[in-house]
Design brief:
The chain has three helices and no strands. The protein has 80 residues and is an all-alpha fold. The longest helix is centred in the middle third of the chain and has 24 residues.
Length: 80
Amino acid sequence: MAKKKVEEVKVINKESESDRLRKLDVATIEKNILELKQELFNLRFQAAVGKLENTAQINKNKKQIARMKTILTERANALK
């Protein structure tokens, strides 16, 4: 009989973006929101001028801002 090779399966637990953001304090999240809003403004300006190459970055920034605002809202509701 041939010996069966038993491989160990390692579970890789990737931390989601939301989990990473939940570890940050409120001031840091608000600062990040302001930075992303400024970057979003710049991206929209580049898109209007026709200089933007990565158009997907606009949606990524908008979703990231929404994630951060959601976390802030969750924290505010938890205090009620």
